[in-house]
Amino acid sequence: MTPPSGGVDTASDLVEGVLAGNRRALARAITHVEADSAIGREVLARIYPRTGRAQTVGITGSAGAGKSTLVGALAREERKRGRTVGIVAIDPSSPFSHGAILGDRIRMQDLTADGGVFLRSMASRGNLGGLSESATGVVDVLDAAGFDVVMIETVGAGQDEVEVANAAGTTVLVANPGGGDEVQSMKAGLMEVAQVMTVNKSDLAGADTALTQLKALLAIAHLGSWEPPILKTIARTGEGVPELVDAIDRHHAHITSSVHAVEERRAQATRQLIALARAALHREALVAAATTGALEALVDSVARRERDPRNAAAALLDAVKAQWARE
Amino acid sequence: MTQERPIRVLIAKPGLDGHDRGAKVVARALRDAGMEVIYTGIRQTPQMIAEAALQEDVQVVGLSILSGAHLELFPRVVEELRSRGVDDVLLFAGGIIPQDDIPAVNKIGFKGVFGPGTDTNDIIAFVREHAPVRA
Questions:
Q1: Is the confidence at residue A160, as pLDDT, over 80?
Q2: Contact assessment for residue A229 and residue A196, using Cβ atoms and an 8 Å cutoff
Q3: A15/A150 same-domain check
Q4: Which terminus of chain A has fewer CB atoms gathered within 10 Å of its CB, N or C?
Q5: Which of A154, A99, A30 is closest to B11 using CA atoms?
């Protein structure tokens, strides 16, 4: 088929193209889903029954932990094993200009020439919790396009970013040698979302300490039927990466095994649904708040110290509910 | 409350240049102007640039080159883009491109050519004016 040109897309052409493995159509479909356009919503609705086949992997950890390099190394290992890989790499947007520099491709240059890999960079766009909506939609499109593994990489800071990684079947926490990791990961609540952990840059001093700290934290965590393995990797050289893929696969087998499959599918659906509902609720509530005009008045009263912010927030919620009742 | 979609730009360096200061200055200026800039690093082949432009669905591709191989590499980038059906992107170039070569570079499809000393505001204005509108 002829690849669609910019600006004249139809949902039918895009769906047909995505399912047929047309990369241009896939790229355009992702753009529509990310923009949450009418076409994007229709594409998602129509491809969703064709999703659920891909193994989804979230990669999260603090800035500079080596996530992009690790995702590149994981993708190379998956390719060696004959699997195709879709990647969604999310970087923050500037809160000031709303622009972004998306540099994940720098660490994955060699993968660009590989037809079995599709990498899409996304900016967080800071759009009122909409990151969860758009990013999970993009994962669905890559899933429907037939990629065996779909990885999603986010900085483990901020609820949206953590939620996005957590929407994957398996979430990998990337930690580093060096002071503070233990408390930092507890603060961020990252321990709770990860099913596989790795101490990356493990050739640096302090790797064993970091490993011990993570183990100690796990020992006091509330674990279900799966005990998260903790590995050591050097993403730059690829050391430990095959073992990491093995661990991810073991977790995938665990959640897809007959004993856990139903339970896990429900748990994942719950996480996704709550994340998306939270984002939608947030957006709708702000729209309603703006419509009623209550927001402005309450802001004034808080700024004048006539009313405390918590009381004002409750009053705002009442105004929003009243507005919804009228609609 | 859908926000206006930011302009997406790919900044890439074809060929064997060893440094990328200029490309980074431009990438940063476009970012500060509210655009989403995908930066791929140095030593890109025409195939890699075209494939990145396709996967990222950018509206604009900016190439920076210092080596003098622009008349060799630019047509190959355009060819690789076309073969992937990416025929609707705005192309511009920067780096060391002799005055005499500019008409040829324009003819290949690069609407703007920005040499050393260009005010980044001129590049921002150029991109805003000419970037094709997408969903």
A1: no
A2: yes
A3: no
A4: C
A5: A99
Query: What is the count of residue pairs from A and B with beta carbons less than 8 Å apart?
Result: 117
- The interface predicted TM-score (ipTM) is 0.92
Owning domain of residue A203:
52-256
Cβ-based contacts of A94 with chain B (< 8 Å): 31-32
Evaluate if residue A119 carries a pLDDT over 80: yes
Residue among A218, A247, A201, A210 at smallest CA distance from A66: A201
- Residues A264-287 have pLDDT tens digits of 788 888 888 888 888 888 888 888
- B36 lies within 8 A of chain A by CB: yes
Nearest CB to A106: which of B41, B132, B135?
B41
Q: Which of B2, B37, B84 sits opposite A99 (nearest CB)?
A: B37
Encode burial over A66-98: b for 16+ CB neighbours within 10 A, e otherwise.
Answer: bbbbbbbbbbbbbbeeebbbbbbbbbbbeeeeb
Q: What number does CATH give the domain B8-130?
A: 3.40.50.280
Among A92, A146, A136, residue whose Cα is nearest residue A115: A146
Q: Is B120 on the interface with A (CB under 8 A)?
A: no
Query: For chain B, which residues make up each domain, given as ranges?
Result: 8-130
Q: Which chain A residue's Cα is nearest to B25?
A: A101
Contacts of B135 in chain A (CB under 8 A): 7, 9, 28, 31-32, 35, 37, 39-40
Average pLDDT over residues B81-85: 94
The verdict on B18 touching A (C-beta cutoff 8 Å) is no
More confident residue, A294 or B135: A294
Residue B35, C-beta contacts closer than 8 angstroms, at least 6 positions apart: A99, B6, B7, B8, B9, B127
